[in-house]
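Example 3.2
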Amino acid sequence: MTLFGQTLDGEQVFGLISLLCMLGLWLVVLKRERGYARWFRQWEADRKARRDAENALTGEKNGDRRGPWG
């Protein structure tokens, strides 16, 4: 097999295929990791919105707490 004028033997072809497979694997992992981070950020925002709504109904304010332990 020749690639860019370079003759490749079996080991080089196997190495090239392995590297391409690893690149594909890392692209999939990166995509899933970014999706998880996006989901987690949205989940935290929703959780904060629910908590703020509950605090508004009960009349609690974040500034009412005193000391380091609330």
